[in-house]
Design brief:
With 482 residues, this protein is α/β, with parallel strands linked by helices. It has 3 domains: 6-125, Response regulator (Rossmann fold, 3-Layer(aba) Sandwich); 131-242, no CATH class; 275-481, no CATH class. The chain contains 16 helices and 11 strands. The strands form 2 sheets. The protein has a 6-stranded antiparallel sheet, sandwiched between helices. β9 and β10 form a beta hairpin. α10 (247-326) runs antiparallel to α15. The protein starts with 5 loop residues before the first strand and ends with a helix.
Length: 482
Amino acid sequence: MNDKAKILVVDNDSFVRELIEDVLSESYQLVMAEDGVDALMRVQLDPPALILLDVQMPGMDGYETCRRLKREDATKSIPVVFVSAHDQIEERLKGYEAGGSDYVTKPFDSQELKAKIAHLLGVIAERSQLKEMVGYATTTAMTAMTSMAEMGALLESMKKFNASRDEMGLAQAILYGLSLYGLDGIVQVRTQDKSLSLTKKGLASPLDISVIDHMIGMDRIVQFKSRISIHYPHVALLVDNMPIEDQDLCGRLRDHLSMLLEAAEMRANGIVAENELRRHGEVIEQVINEVSEVLNEVNPAMLKSRNGRAQEFSIFLDKVEKALLKIAVNKKDDEVLFEIVRSGIENILNAQFDESGLQNQEANIQKLLEGTKMKANGKAAENESGRRGMDVKQVIDDITGALSEISPNQSQDKSRMKLEFAVMLDNLDKALPMVSIAKEEENFFFNFIKNGVSYIINTKSEETKLQNQLTGIIQNMKKISG
């Protein structure tokens, strides 16, 4: 048993038939026909899943062949892909009017042809799943048309719009509104997240989409014969069965459709705003999580850094004692110089941050973050009821302001330590000339102290990394808030 989908290839050019066979034979079961008459006979005997139909053929052309296929109940649902050397919009419209599902221009790209066929066969599968829904919609439409006036249909449609929560729901509601008037067509809903084109049978075909996209570039309302197109920034409609034989009814329906789509545009604006609000909520939560994660590391890192610096200075003081032994200095001078260095280092360490003050500020910021998260969740719930969402800019500004006040600031810490360092060097500079040692040894000891303490002060620590992280988060939040 062959499980491959069957495709009927109709083209009077044997070279084109062979080319298509080379491209598709591995994936599909192919049946060849040389002209329209041959194709109609083969379809009646064994209907294929899809038809590739040349436009220009001797005798019956592709458009007429397609029209005859669409007139028969047994074959009207078979998708037809036109193959033509012409790509003008007029040719595509002819294909659309004849009942085609897509259009491929010669010379065709093999990958494009495969993709279009796979897409159309997928649409067929989706349409079969939507068959029950279509039957329900048709029944609902018939009941609605017999029980309400035209304005009642409009009001009923607006109720459906208000109940819509996403692009698919709104597109189905517009199609429902069309069915209440006994109309059929293509609906397109466009938001910042997606563009969705729908018919009552399911997802619109590529040819449907290309036609409605072309109409969007025209005036807001355009009618030609039994078709009318209406478009707004987020919604568009192409109706293909306006009752042109009844001019009064046609005029009323034109007015109703205009109001219908205007109401749909308002709801689409609401969906766009709700999507944006959800994104803002996600941004707020992401910011809160990032800030909380860094804050949880700030105090331990700064304490570790302070202890590490103290340990380095303790080791350095041992080196100072050994250095004093290397220079010819008596015990009294030794004690004076060592005390200048020891007290200077102690003052440098005391110039660092106030740990308890930092902890209090961290606790206050954590409370602000928790409160912000609760407010964001509350506003998201409120938005489901139609109320205004949270001001993301204000939230981010509040968090940024709080983060900017975290003490100690690394640069302030360094400035205070360097000031104490300068005082120590000044005291040492004054004391050394009073010690009975050679000038060379005096310069050695002074530079030894200066270079050693300077290295310890300027060594990058964990607190520097975390402060850089906080600075990066603050800059990102300022970009987001705008």
